[in-house]
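FAQ: What does a ligand-bound record look like?

Like this one, built around guanosine-5'-monophosphate:
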Amino acid sequence: MSDCLFCKIVAGDIPSTKVYEDETVLAFRDIAPQAPTHILVIPKAHIASVACIAPENSAVVAHIFEVIAKIAAQEGLDGGYRVVSNCGADAGQTVHHLHFHILGGRQLNLEMA
Ligand code: 5GP
Ligand code: ZN
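The answer part, i.e. the structure of the complex:
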């Protein structure tokens, strides 16, 4: 998707601070961190949101969660961390390329919203 910000990051057209990369997944630091550790994990192939996960593309989502566990260990998030994916307007999704936030490094508040 040529007008998608995260596709441009995957293509290298927009720089990012990468923390993990393989054939199908990229992880990079959020530009506006909400916690001491704030990393975004995305599929390289464009999927618009959680709502678009389907049998044809769900394998990468399982892989993303394996990558999340690896990154959390690398980042030393031994006290725990939160994984968030905003889906759609009511959740405040601003970038319409599936991404999972890893948030950690401080005590996170307990509200879900
Ligand atoms: P959303 O609000 O869609 O769940 O999350 C989008 C996230 O992308 C936000 O946390 C925002 O700070 C981050 N973001 C937006 N533009 C950029 C960018 O150009 N580079 C990086 N690294 N993060 C970005
Ligand atoms: Zn995209």
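Follow-up question: can I read anything off the structure? Yes, for example: The chain has a mean pLDDT of 96.
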